[in-house]
Every structure is written in C-alpha cells, then in structure tokens.
Design brief:
Layout (H helix, E strand, L loop, with lengths): L1 H9 L2 H48 L16 E4 L5 E5 L1 H7 L2
Antiparallel strand pairs: 1-2
The structure holds zinc ion.
Zinc ion binds next to loops.
Length: 100
C-alpha cells in the first residue's frame, strides 16, 4: 500500500491523467472483448442447437443399413437395441433380404 502511494506521489498530475486515460481505454477494451466473448458464446450455442437439429433431421433420413441409400422417416424397418434406442434402419426389401 505504502509503495503504491509513493509511486502516486512521484507521478506528476499530467502523467496521472494520461495513466488514467490509458487505464480507462484498457477497461473499455476489456469490456468490448467481454461483450465479444459473450456474443461468440451465444453464437456457439446457436450453432450447437443447429447441429443438434441437423443430427435429428439426419436421423429421420437415416440410411439403410444394407444398401446405404437414404430412407424416408416412415419408410423401412427400424431395429432397436435393448434400451429401445434406434440401432439401424433398413428398407423393407433389404431387411427381408438379410433374413432370406
Ligand atoms: Zn436398402
């Protein structure tokens, strides 16, 4: 504490004003950067939400587990695992072909 007071006394008023301005400019810049970070975070969340939607949409247009062609949402046979989660999907014909 004493040391900073000593420095304060040594700095002349003109330099003090300059120093104050520089600190204010730095704080302003810092605030700008914080806003930018917040903005980027928000954008990131938006992108994540978009990606989640995209993945869900992709799920609805999943590819056939046998032939690899895209299936419509209602089309085909859905194979579920023990937890009831969708494991794979097949065209009805492809699915039947698997068990021939
Ligand atoms: Zn198929």
């Amino acid at each position: 504490m004493l040391k900073s007071m000593e420095i304060g006394e040594q700095v002349n008023p003109c330099e003090q004003t300059e120093l104050k301005e520089r600190i204010e400019a730095t704080l302003y810049r810092l605030r700008e950067l914080r806003e930018r970070v917040a903005e980027l975070k928000h954008r990131c969340e938006e992108l994540r939400a978009m990606e989640t939607k995209r993945v869900e949409k992709f799920k609805n247009t999943a590819k056939c587990g046998k032939c690899g062609y895209v299936l419509d949402a209602e089309e085909g046979v859905v194979v579920k695992d023990a937890n009831g989660e969708e494991k794979s999907r097949y065209h009805r014909a492809c699915f039947e072909a698997l068990f021939k």
